Amino acid sequence: MKRWMLIFAISALAGAQDINLQTFDALRAKATDTVEVNLSESMLHMAAGFMNGNDSKQAEMKKLVGGLKGVYVRSYKFDKDGQYSAADVEAMRDQLKAAGWQSMVDVHQSSKAKEGTQNSGVYLRTDGKQVMGLVVLASEPKQLTLVNIAGNVDLAQLQALSGTLGIPPIRMGFDGKQAGSKTKE
Amino acid sequence: MNDLESQLREALRRTEPPPGWERRIVKRAAVARRARRLRQSASAIAVCLLLAAGGSYWQRQREARQARDQLIQALQITGEKLQVVERAAVENLNK
Known about the structure:
The complex is a heterodimer.
Chain A: H1 2-17, E1 33-40, H2 41-49, H3 56-66, E2 68-77, H4 86-98, E3 102-108, E4 119-126, E5 131-140, E6 143-151, H5 155-160, E7 183-184
Parallel strand pairs in A: 3-7
Antiparallel strand pairs in A: 1-2, 2-6, 3-4, 4-5, 5-6
Helix pairs in contact in A: 2-3
Chain B: H1 2-11, H2 21-94
């Protein structure tokens, strides 16, 4: 019975998360700074309940959170270059491609790969009309970050939040809710 | 005077309690004692329930605050990394 419950819990989590973040687990030991955020739908609802509806920005965030199924972050900072391999990043890219994520921005700088420069991308999952998931994969010389926002992501609302609550300006290369390809290698 | 004396005597005359009086008093005292214990127990249970509810509420508030802070942190990282990707894309385009 316990085993079935565990299998059910894992499959429910995997369904919500959509991406296997364990790919990066090995990097945790090498990192000097680690940020791991795991917010399931229920935790997001809990967070939304704690937001002040009278504050316009928090009200905006509350609306954004309403459609989300989960927010997951893995960010690892290293004290020197070369602590993760291009294969780690490629494994994640392959996983995203295999799961049907569409590349919105994809930057490869293979000529500088030995210096450990950018190898990043933004990926979307849509149901044809709405964005149902956003992944940001940022690979820097001393830092590797993956953000997975699962669920109905209102990009306009996400953009509206930028510049407040410590969130830096977000420019998604679009004006409204319609997401489009910005640049591709 | 005699009249007064006889009235006093009559008033102070020892009378036996009705049958079962002592039993009724003891029973009444026991009932009162039980009621007092019940009230004390109920009060203790109410205090425990209040403490538990307060603790649970406080715990939920703490978790909600943590979740909100984590969400803000996640959105901050999202914004930062979108900028990183954007810069990289622009650099690539300008090459």
